[in-house]
Amino acid sequence: QIVNAKSTAETVGDEPQLVYQRTQCPVVVGASRKQDIELLIRKFDCDVVLSDDGLQHYALQRDIEIVVVDKERQFGNGFYIPAGPLREAEARLQQVDLVLLNGGDKQQKAFTMQACQCVSIGDTKKTAIKLAEFSGKTVHAIAGIGNPQRFFNMLEAQGINVIPHAFVDHHRYIESDLLFTNDLPVLMTEKDAVKCSDFKLDNHWSVPIEIVLTDSAQHRLNEIFNTLITEPEIQGVC
């Protein structure tokens, strides 16, 4: 199905709904990636298709392969699922076009995640405030993502005192998950907030993240994409 402004995270998933809200690009979800891509091409005349988590989908034709590696966790214990975190051998990285480090330094092909503001959730009378306004204050922090500690660490790096509340990835929230016995502010990731917009909340804030690429990462991406400019066919990025 095509994700649109009337979709909900419950029906299309939290990440697709967030991607659509942030980019306004055509987004399609479904059980068959082949059918999803055919729908994108038919309805939107796309010339580039980005397939999230498509690396091991070998039935899917692709022109570019990009792998993101968490610099802190790396490859865990080195074992395959379910004994470890890997889906393929580490040697597979030698075959891809680009390996991006999440949290790498300026000399590496990497990116960092930065947050500057907070957006109100559930309270239409409020809009946005700077994240720095919470510096030196204590907040409840909610994260239902793959690595919640990364979100907590980012807030603490801004001088915010964090009371952490970690949930499993893609957790389906109920309103009581977000309510506490004190009136401290509540900060959460955008991915969590997209599932909570209909709740009656006060002093709850979403923290949008901006991705900042290092110069070497941006240069490599430019090189990769420039090789496709003259190609007339549909391009696939996994």
Question: Your description of this structure?
Answer:
With 238 residues, the protein is of the alpha/beta class. The protein is built from 6 helices and 12 strands. α5 (190-193) links the parallel β9 and β10.
Q: Secondary-structure element order, as H and E?
A: HHHEEEEEEEHEEHEEHE
Query: Based on DSSP secondary structure assignment, what is the total number of beta strands?
Result: 12
Span between N and C termini? Answer: 20 Å
User: Whole-number radius of gyration?
Assistant: 19 Å
Q: Tally the helices: what do you get?
A: 6
Apparent shape: globular
Mean pLDDT: 88
Instruction: Give the strand line-up of the largest sheet.
Output: 6-5-10-9-7-8
Strand percent estimate: 15-25%
| Share of helical residues | 10-25%
Can you summarize the main beta sheet? 6 strands, mixed
Q: Give unreliable regions as ranges.
A: none
Helix and strand composition category: alpha/beta
